[in-house]
Amino acid sequence: MTKMRPPSGNQATISFGDQKVTTTSVGGGLRRYTKDETEVVEGFEENSIADSTRGQTMIPWPNRIRGARYHWAGKAYQLDLSEARNNNAIHGLTRWQNFELVRSTQESVTYELFLPPTTSWPFMLLCQIRYDIGEAGLRVETTIKNIGDTPAPLATGAHPYISLFGEKIDQLKLQSPAHSYFEKDDQAIPIAKKEVEDTIYDFRKNKKIASVALDHTFSDIDRDKDGLARITLSNDTDSKTTLWMDESYQYLQLYSGDTLPDAKRRRHSIAIEPMSAPPDAFNSGVDLIKLEPEETKSFTWGIEPNLIKS
């Protein structure tokens, strides 16, 4: 009898010391990340799918496109309504594609996907997602090349859910160096940029999340001397996990999981999502990349866990 393949495709595990990362061919996704057998991200089981975008990379756009419609080079395109309740297209085209494993070592794995043209996406991209595990934690690099003969619109993002020992995030602290957030309309599309100062969305100083519901885009993000922006989730026993992102990611989505379909999962982790452009960039053009033929762009983020078991 042929062995059944998991719904998330072939699995590849890399490790370094007490850290272990499991990735999937479907979506080139991050299924599990543990340190000393403690979950760093809220992942999913091998016999499940990556629902709610858990651990997925979003190409060629992150977040939403209003009405699933966009214009490019004077032509109008209609995408599938992948977020029907809000009448949007959401989180790109590669999440459910089966990537090819092209390189694998004890500490590194690389997936590759040819994203073909369609009537709603008439472009050709070669997409690579590389995971490296080391002393400093997990590093994820997304590399995208235009292998077609016309310029292509491009943005990207990642969607890991960070958790600390499964604790409810109401009791956890969040620090995010973002000075601005976006108000949104009833389709969850940003409509106005506001300063975080004197609002419940100001996490520039480490503070408890408490009951704040988050599904917001942030920008104007401070960076350290190394050019990285760092967002940290911590608890009262000095455990913390930091997500960092390089300068290719100018935006951040924070999602507290209040609307997750599975009520038991709500507010037990927080999605910290690096994004190269804001939602609906295919229509607004804000920080949307015009990727020329043969041009390549790379985007890098990572996770640094520092967990102290009580």
UniProtKB/TrEMBL annotation:
Its EC number is 5.1.3.3. This is Aldose 1-epimerase. Pfam families: Aldose_epim (PF01263). InterPro entries: Aldose_1/G6P_1-epimerase (IPR008183), Gal_mutarotase_sf_dom (IPR011013), GH-type_carb-bd (IPR014718), YihR-like (IPR037480). Transmembrane segments: none annotated. Residues 1-29 are annotated as: Disordered. The lineage of its organism: Bacteria, Bacillati, Actinomycetota, Acidimicrobiia, Acidimicrobiales. Residues 8-25 have a biased composition (Polar residues).
